[in-house]
Amino acid sequence: PVAARAAAAASRVRRGRANRRPGRGAARPAAARRTSSGGAAAAPPSLVCECVRACVPAREPTQDLQSASRAVLFFRWAMPTACRTLSRRATAVVSRTRHKSSIIAPASSPSAPPPGFPRLPLLGSLPWFSNLGLPDGSSVQSLDEQHESWAEGTRRHGPVWRVGIPGLGKGISGDLTLCADPREFVKVLQAEGKYPYGAIQLQWPFIVWATKHGRTVGKLFTRSEDWRHIRHGMQKSILPPAAAAGYAAIIGTTGREVVLNAPLWDDAGSFMSRASFDLFAGLALGRRIRASDPRPGASLPEDERFCVDTIEALDLLPDVIQDLPSIAMSSLGLESPMMKRYFRAVSGALDYAEAQVREMLARLDAAEPLSTAEEASYLASTVRTQRAAAAAGAADALTDDEIVASVSVALVASVDTTSSIATWVLAHLAREPEVQQRLREEVAAALQQHAGSLAAVIEEELPYLKAVVRETHRLTPALVISSVKEVDADIDLAGHRIPAGSLVALENHSLQMSEALVEQPRAFRPERWLAGAVAERKGTPAELIDHPLLSAPFSAGARKCPGSRVATLEVRALIAGLVHNWRIGLVDERQATVPYRCQTTIAPTMPRLRYEPLTEESRAVAEGLPPRGGGGVCAP
């Protein structure tokens, strides 16, 4: 029906050519010029606009496609042949419609379908995000500007709305329903079924790779008893609070070492990625990878290759997911150049990870002695737990192949969320010296109390450190869409009917940036998360921001990140260790904003940082560094 409406629209435009505006070189009629108020005067419909209107159901107003030239650029990329015709005929005549719905108000018409942006085949709603106007007069140029684009969608359409994102949503137009109210999203979690959908299902390139190579790890990406079986086994040794706390010693010891490497990197974001990699590899395998130390000979070449392949695979994944040529070629059983690059990186990373896991399994089978760190590792703990279950006759005990798959994928997937959270925290602390100093004093007091043990400090929930991390997530989340589910039954969300089979995502940012709920929402104020401030919000509308579903980017329900508690310990270790050893500031203190990029998570493009050593260990590192004018410079 959509194609038929588009064809009919094109036919009407061809029949009406005699009535269109004067040809090339003629002055544009005044009636067709854009008005000074930002709207558009009536104009003869172009082929682009007529097709847009024909493809969009009448109940959804077209909006925010101010410039057909932007749309034509997108169409030209997606459909070159059609766009040669469109670019000759397009005129910018689609009017802007503002929706100022409350983000927590119920729908005016019970059981009505949710509002949202128009959704086109193959293109979804992407053309509408090519120049999306914001209330302050600025604009969003693409959906990759996630901190702004998702919040603007909620501001316009209310707490429940729809968007089309090919490669992420369902169907040819990529249908996805957004829910900004965590109380309503609880209904989605209750309707997710025995084998729930999770954001991991969006990673279709990895699923294609695992299927093609017959890898056991592919079972973790299914909605089946295989997934349930492996997930149940792998989380026993890492998700429960007591199990996660058991890795604090490894994380603390590794953390004390890696934070001293920060000034060795010009790019703080690269340092954080590698530091996160070191921390999880240490707790998973019980040995040091030392990827965060760039000095020659610090790490083994094969370990360095492992780290590079892992980070490259994570960087490429979101691009492949939404790459139209990759989507089209994959449906035909072919591989685009981008897919081939991704497959090479993920093969290199997982092949090495599996080899490391199998080597330790062989040592355990041979009863070879392990180091203290290896004995305390996630791998050793999982092997002991699962082999004890098998010896007791448990039918759900994991096989060695399943242990290899679960530990290997955890190693590869452990970098992005932890590093993005920690990097955003570092970006805020570098710009807020008073906050940084207060945090430093809290950490110093805790270290003195625990005889300098960073492991003991991260196990203790330091109130201000916790508040700093929480405020970072509120203001600059590593994931705006923190949970994606498919509902197995019809449900009602804020008065809107959501049919079974729909994909629904929790949008966690707009509500936490609402002036109705948060005082000075654009200010970085960790104090708002201290116990006294939280108690003051009780019984008021503002207590909604304390909802558990808004507190962290680790999803929820049966598909919640199994390493979420360990990731929290890692972030604490990195931030506490950094502020204890270094006074961190901006090289260019005039930099007003921190840009960001969208990968598997939202990561800041870090400004250049200056590190002033504060401890004997950090001074020793600083003395060995030559003076530099860029990031990583050590102040005397």
Oligomer: single chain
Number of strands: 13
Report the biggest beta sheet as strand number plus sense, adding barrel if it closes.
4 strands, mixed
Low-confidence stretches: 1-101
Helical proportion, percent range: 40-55%
Main-sheet strand order equals 3-4-8-5
* Gyration radius, in Å: 26 Å
Concise synopsis of the structure shown:
The chain has 636 residues and is an alpha+beta fold. It contains 24 helices and 13 strands.
Descriptive report:
Strand 12, helix 24 (616-623) and strand 13 (633-634) form a beta-alpha-beta unit. This protein has helices spanning 2-15, 47-55, 68-78, 80-89, 146-157, 182-190, 204-212, 225-235, 241-245, 248-258, 268-285, 301-321, 324-331, 337-365, 372-375, 378-391, 400-413, 416-431, 433-449, 454-459, 463-475, 531-537, 564-581, 616-623, and strands spanning 132-133, 139-140, 160-164, 175-179, 481-486, 491-493, 496-498, 503-507, 582-586, 596-598, 602-604, 609-613, 633-634. Helices cover 46% and strands 8% of the residues. The strands form 5 sheets. The chain has a 4-stranded mixed beta sheet, sandwiched between helices.
State the main characteristics.
636 residues; alpha+beta; 4-stranded mixed β-sheet; 24 helices; 13 strands; globular; disordered N terminus
